[in-house]
Amino acid sequence: MNKLNADNFPELICKRPEKIIQFGEGNFIRAFMDWIIQQLNNQNKFNGSVVAIQPTPHGKVVGKLNTQNGLFTTILRGIQDGQTVNTKEIISSISRGINPYTNWQDVLKCAENPEIEIVFSNTTEAGLTYNNQDTATMAPPLSFPAKLTLFLYHRYQYFHGDATKGMYIIPCELLENNGQLLKSIILKYCKQWQLPSDFITWLNAHNKFYNTLVDRVVSGYPKDEIETLTQELGYNDILIACGEPFHFLAIEGDTSLNEKLPLLNSGLNVVIENDISQYRQRKVRLLNGGHTANVPASFLAGLNTVAEMMNDQITGKFAQQTINNHILPSISMDKEMLIDFANAVIERFQNPFIKHQLSSILLNCTSKFKARVLPSILEYHDKFHTFSQNLSFSFAAYITLYNTSKINGNHFYIEHNGTTCELTDDEYAIQKLTSAWKYYAKTQESATVVVNEILGDTNLWGINLTTYPELINDVSKYLYAIDTQNIKQIMQSLLLNEE
Ligand SMILES: NC(=O)c1ccc[n+]([C@@H]2O[C@H](COP(=O)([O-])OP(=O)(O)OC[C@H]3O[C@@H](n4cnc5c(N)ncnc54)[C@H](O)[C@@H]3O)[C@@H](O)[C@H]2O)c1
Ligand SMILES: O=P(O)(O)OC[C@@H](O)[C@@H](O)[C@H](O)[C@H](O)CO
């Protein structure tokens, strides 16, 4: 079987000018931003390519990308409006990858290229951070914002502060106001490294940092079905990225960006608006919150993937009910927009082609529960003067998860269907959640002590939730029930209550 590379597919090799520098080469950014660039190139609207930079010292993707001359395949499968969609496309929008830890000068050379005017990034939430160990003399510094600071400083010096050589900077990390956050970290490095004030003026005046919201489920390399898919493709590709057909990109700012990157009117699901907060709220609460509110209980019920959760008679109905009747009514936004999105989310969760592991959604569950589910719990109460039973049950399932965790050195793990999976969370959260269980002796009263201990911790939730005795009561009731009854039976009775 042929390998996917220039020798075997010479006609596919990207000959378009490099116009974008991209920090990150993971599954998501390739199957989302690089796929978007491919669509624009297919329509002859952009005519540009991407240089991908490896963010961490031990990454392997850049090496693989270069052996395939930048080529990789996206496989996008799902059900859209009741129809099965299955597209396979070789993406040729990446010209090359650079390992900055061995070739930092090549990265700086890109700063000297006037045609490269756009920056993309996706380095996970952990990558969009300040690292006080980074210095201006490191080649390169470790963090992504520090690398970008030196990249921009080099560009400023090379072009002698030319006002026309600023960059359009589009981070994709799933953090609120990611563009502003990136800019603030860069300004912090400028201060720490005592970079000239003229550079800071140029940075502020001539570089645009955009806040974004990205949405597409990307499950990545299909290791479970690689043999079948390779036969179907007819070539070997070590960088296949699988995902769903759905995509949505919201960019906050003025539409002048569209002159450089013609995203609008391209048939792509992209908006560029002055305020993208409603798109963010809709996605974080219904989709991400829909995951985080439902996954702990389904995981405890022994299921492995989102599709399994949705196919199960009880957990599937429960997830739909929670999204439609408990999360959706808590959100103060145009109802029609919310209903359309909730329907699409349910269809996306049911996608039979995507093996989205529940265990991956459980990573860092505490911060996700706080940002994605707690607002629905509190706003539901504000609106209806009672707490949502489904969401109180979800809260109890999330707490139960930590009771089932075991410690090995510094690692917490859960045994699940004969395998172990890491329970990653911040150390304080793990310690707090597991230690609260020392009070627990399988009575309703002791369950209340555990819930008081956990919900009263302002470090975890930002507020003291024990000011809501009804919530304490409801969560304790379900915590006790989960410990003493079959978890699916509890979900079944919650379903029946609403019929
Ligand atoms: N996969 C999805 O469905 C999806 C959808 C929307 C958003 N996202 C976001 O994209 C992120 C990456 O997901 P993925 O599927 O591409 O994962 P991935 O493992 O394929 O890629 C992760 C990327 O982040 C980099 N990275 C990891 N830790 C880093 C650190 N500490 N500093 C700098 N860079 C670091 C890696 O080098 C790699 O480039 C997730 O954190 C998620 O928030 C993912
Ligand atoms: O990626 P996480 O771990 O922050 O959240 C898990 C999922 O909710 C998330 O990956 C969604 O599928 C994604 O945000 C869809 O765009």
TrEMBL record:
- InterPro entries linked to this entry: 6-PGluconate_DH-like_C_sf, 6PGD_dom2, Mannitol_DH_C, Mannitol_DH_N, NAD(P)-bd_dom_sf
GO cellular component, as recorded: cytosol
**Boundaries of every Mannitol dehydrogenase N-terminal domain copy:** 18-261
Keyword flag NAD? yes
Query: Which reactions appear under catalytic activity for this entry?
Result: D-mannitol 1-phosphate + NAD(+) = beta-D-fructose 6-phosphate + NADH + H(+)
Q: Name one Pfam family in it.
A: Mannitol_dh_C
| GO-annotated biological processes | D-galacturonate catabolic process; mannitol catabolic process
Tell me which residues make up the Mannitol dehydrogenase C-terminal domain: 275-481
Question: Which keywords does this Swiss-Prot/TrEMBL entry list?
Answer: NAD, Oxidoreductase
- Gene Ontology MF term list: mannitol-1-phosphate 5-dehydrogenase activity; tagaturonate reductase activity
Indicate what this protein is called per its UniProt record: Tagaturonate reductase
Organism annotation: Megamonas funiformis
